[in-house]
Design goal:
- The protein is built from four helices and two strands, in the order αααββα.
- It has a two-stranded antiparallel ribbon.
- It has two domains: 57 residues; 75 residues.
- Helix 1 runs antiparallel to helix 2, helix 2 packs antiparallel against helix 3 and helix 3 crosses helix 4.
- Helix content is 80%, strand content 4%.
- It has 133 residues and is mostly helical.
Amino acid sequence: MESSALRYFRVGMYALGILMAIITIFNPTGTGFIATAIFLGVAVIAAIGFAIKTFIQNPRSAVKTLIGLGVVVVLFFIGKAITPAEPVYNVIGEKLADTNVALYAGASVFTGMVMMLLTFLVFIVSEVVSFFR
């Protein structure tokens, strides 16, 4: 059972995520990108904070959380390793992103795609299992 403060935090994070998604849709290169980066930072800090809190309260379940964070980090570095380290140019030859930006963007896209695929697979498997119960 979660506390009311945790529930308010969770609902606030959902609302903030929806707000940032809307901002990103209407202004993908300016404010939306900055807001998304800030939200990502808050989410990482919250995930680590909750992992530490859980580790103090229940060490056995916290190990699973830390393994999950480790898997995400490993996926990111795999994505970074397979992303071509080339600057990105537009059609008329203007440089859009240097090598480092392209590397981190490619790694982030790879990590996001793998996480979405895994989420979809877990959803399908859980629905099939619940159907046969």
